[in-house]
Design goal:
By secondary structure, this protein is an alpha/beta fold. The protein has two domains: 58 residues; 199 residues, Rossmann fold (3-Layer(aba) Sandwich), CATH 3.40.50. It is built from twelve helices and seven strands. The protein has a seven-stranded mixed sheet, sandwiched between helices. Strand 5, helix 11 and strand 6 form a beta-alpha-beta unit. The two termini are 13 Å apart.
Length: 285
């Protein structure tokens, strides 16, 4: 997915939200936003929005001298989600369609995106997802393909959310699939890192692979050889969230093998997907 004019204000919004969360004073915030305007002008329009966002945020991190402004809130998100884990585990045990509900729970977690919003209603998102259908729904196709493969790679998105990814990984493992989860190699926004994966207990359900990079999404030219190999060789891939969609949807390897699971939070992504703001979708190209 290529960058559009509408992405520009999102770069600034992400930068502003980041500095607000980090407690940066007004004078420095003003100075930093003016400085990154010049960087935005120089961005490559052929790059994905996720890659360009990373470039701008990395500059912000340097200017405010903070390599992980979201560190505390990521840990808090993980703890909040872990508090819901036992109840959701019991919900799945009673479910008439455990895999479908595990996918819906994982999608509900995708609301935890502090790069776009400073707050979220996790309980509300869970109720919405569990009681509505995917606006775009390739679940039947996924079921058929899943029966034909031995392994699944789950490309994770945010902290907190990975607790719900753990439930999905556990369900896939229960079905006899070998599951690997890909997380970020370094901090960027509230994206899940190895530290978050361990806090969430994700390692108890799947092998954990690092992208070796702090780039948002999973751009194939910027991730580790191990992560790229996992994506290229996996029987099936479940890609969580918008940034991963932006960086993988145009790749040839995505055809009929990568299933995108996300909540639409951006009109540009919605247009590319063919869905409306707020929709929850599960589909392959």
């Amino acid at each position: 997915m290529q960058t559009s004019a509408d992405c520009i204000h999102c770069y600034l919004k992400q930068a502003a939200n980041c500095m607000s969360l980090a407690g940066v004073d007004e004078a420095l915030r003003y100075q930093v936003l003016l400085e990154v305007l010049d960087d935005i002008k120089a961005l490559d329009k052929q790059s994905t929005p996720a890659e360009n966002s990373t470039e701008i945020l990395a500059k912000v991190y340097r200017l405010i001298n903070n390599s992980d402004p979201y560190k505390e809130i990521k840990a808090q998100s993980n703890e909040i989600a872990l508090g819901l884990y036992p109840g959701l585990k019991k919900y799945l045990e009673r479910s008439g369609n455990r895999l479908l509900d595990a996918l819906k729970i994982a999608a509900a977690g995708n609301i935890i995106d502090l790069g776009i919003s400073k707050s979220y209603d996790l309980d509300g998102s869970l109720q919405q997802c569990l009681n509505t259908e995917f606006a775009i729904n390739d679940y039947a196709v996924f079921q058929k393909k899943l029966a034909e493969v031995d392994d699944v790679v789950l490309v994770c998105d945010n902290s907190g959310e990975i607790v719900f990814d753990r439930l999905l990984a556990e369900e896939l493992s229960r079905m006899g699939k070998e599951v690997s989860c890909i997380v970020k190699g370094g901090p960027m926004l509230n994206d899940a890192t190895m530290e978050d994966a361990l806090q969430a207990g994700l390692d108890q359900a799947a092998a954990i692979i690092s992208t070796g990079s702090n780039y948002l999404g999973a751009p194939l030219n910027r991730i580790s050889a191990e992560a790229r190999s996992a994506l290229e060789q996996a029987g099936l891939v479940i890609s969580k969230g918008q940034a991963n969609f932006e960086s993988l949807e145009h790749e040839a390897m995505a055809r009929d093998r990568i299933f995108f699971l996300l909540k639409i939070k951006c009109e540009c992504v919605g247009k590319a997907v063919g869905a409306a703001l707020g929709d929850i979708v599960f589909f392959s190209r």
